[in-house]
Write a structure and sequence with these properties.
- Helix content is about 20%, strand content about 30%.
- The chain is built from seven helices and 15 strands.
- β5 and β6 form a beta hairpin.
- The longest helix is centred in the N-terminal third of the chain and has 23 residues.
């Protein structure tokens, strides 16, 4: 029973060796594909002060897309700092998908156990102007093809009808024309040296007399005078012995060559006036993808906002129940009854209403975040994601409600912006999940009438059931 098996393996080995010979004889060139992924990092710039000139700032890494899936930007290739906040990484600051500035990472550090990037906010470079094209030179085609020599004219030149002596005077006014100078009477003393030689050249090497010549006495005397003068001007300085201690501090003149990396002012904690913005770093230059939705009828935006605000008040328990309806006792009383005046709806605190077009031709996606008034422990927070249906009504895709007493179990959701995290021309909604002592960031994708969480960073353990 073993012979057929051995013969079968021998046949396979012979076939593989023959295939190897055939591949070795293949005259073509096999090129290996470059499997290096194109990374795309997403972060959030947080700052205080004026936009473009922040007082304090930091960049929080969110995600790194490695071509296959989203990785945590605060942990991806950490050595020890993550790759997303290494020195030299540049982020493009975006607002509604439009580039408004650059943020260059100089160095990084840890704040409350999380890595952040420190750097500087720079404006977008001005677009390069196209090169100027020289105006074409008009050529007179009717002129003769015979070459003509033209002399250089100057302001002191006379007309062409002058004599030869006049032409010599014209030539002397040309600074580039070589001229001959006559020897003056004052140069008779040096006639033996310069009677037949050319004009003195400042770059021409000269010969000096040896120290033993007749002028040596004068030169030695001048040297002695210069030495005496220098010794008189010099102040007494004692020689300092060589110091062999390498740790001894030394004072040096001038500006040092390097003081290490520049450290930007760090932003600590979560101040009330802190602002946030999406930042994207990509090796490829991609065109802007605005996320703003353009309404065909501007009145539809106000109508949708009113409906979404009413849904938010209902979720927060702010809408008062309607008063009970009492039946009138007689027809006379019914005739005199007047409709009750509608009460003014209670205001929503820190309301943020945004409308996005997360993909080309995908329609409007509405997001509203707000909370009630009062102390933090008594506040209630709501986040709504909705889309209009075919009948002009709102379809609620996602609703999240929490209160100030349970933020570490069920955090508040703060909308930052939409961002294309995976370079697929589709935007995801980026939220900050903020509790009392924990903080995370999450991406939500709106697709086919649903809003699902796509990614969440590390740094906390919020209730997954409440966030989905």
């Amino acid at each position: 029973m073993s012979w057929p098996r051995i013969a079968f393996l021998t046949t396979i080995a012979f076939g593989l060796s023959a295939a190897g010979v055939a591949l070795a004889q293949y005259p073509g060139e096999i090129k290996k594909k470059d499997n290096a992924p194109t990374l795309r990092a997403v972060g959030v710039l947080e700052w205080t002060g004026e936009a473009g000139k922040p007082k304090k700032s930091r960049l929080v890494p969110i995600t790194v897309f490695d071509g296959q899936q989203l990785q945590d930007g605060g942990e991806y290739l950490a050595r020890p700092q993550p790759m997303a906040v290494e020195g030299g990484v540049e982020y493009v600051l975006q607002q509604d998908g439009k580039r408004i500035g650059l943020f260059d990472i100089d160095n990084s550090g840890q704040e409350q156990g999380s890595w952040v990037g420190l750097g500087s906010w720079k404006p977008m470079p001005a677009p390069k102007k196209p090169p100027k094209i020289a105006a074409p030179i008009d050529v007179d085609d009717t002129a003769s093809d015979t070459p003509v020599l033209h002399r250089k004219h100057h302001s002191g030149d006379s007309t062409a009808g002058k004599s030869g002596s006049d032409s010599g005077s014209r030539g002397s006014s040309d600074p580039d024309r070589p001229t001959l100078h006559k020897k003056t009477s004052g140069d008779d003393s040096d006639s033996s040296d310069t009677s037949s030689g050319p004009a003195p050249d400042p770059d021409r090497p000269t010969l000096h007399k040896a120290p033993g010549s007749s002028d040596s006495g004068n030169s030695q005397a001048d040297k002695g005078k210069r030495t005496a003068a220098s010794e008189a001007d010099a102040s007494p300085v004692e020689s300092v012995p060589e110091v062999s201690d390498p740790d001894r501090p030394r004072l040096m003149r001038g500006k040092p060559a390097s003081n290490g990396p520049a450290v930007a002012p760090t932003l600590m904690g979560l101040p009330e006036n802190m602002q946030q913005m999406v930042a994207v770093s990509d090796a490829q230059t991609r065109p802007d993808h605005p996320w703003d939705f353009s309404w065909a009828n501007p009145d539809d935006k106000d109508k949708m906002k009113t409906q979404l605000e009413d849904t938010a008040r209902t979720a927060l328990g702010m809408n008062a129940p309607p008063p009970p309806v009492s039946k009138p006792k007689s027809r006379t009383v019914r005739a005199k009854a007047r409709p009750a005046t509608p009460l003014e709806p209670p205001p929503l605190q820190d309301e943020q209403f945004r409308v996005f077009e997360l993909a080309y031709g995908s329609g409007a996606t509405l997001v509203l975040t707000a909370h009630t008034d009062g102390p933090l422990a008594q506040q209630k927070f709501v986040t709504l994601i909705a889309q209009p249906d075919l009948y002009g009504s709102l379809l609620i895709l996602f609703k999240h409600v929490t209160d100030g007493a349970h933020l570490d179990d069920n955090p508040e959701m703060r909308l930052i912006d939409a961002v294309d995290a995976m370079a697929d021309n589709r935007g995801e909604l980026l939220f900050e999940l903020r509790g009392k002592s924990l903080r995370q960031f999450a991406l939500y994708r709106v697709l086919r009438g649903t809003a699902q969480r796509l990614f969440v960073t590390s740094g906390g353990t919020f209730g997954d059931q409440a966030m989905n």
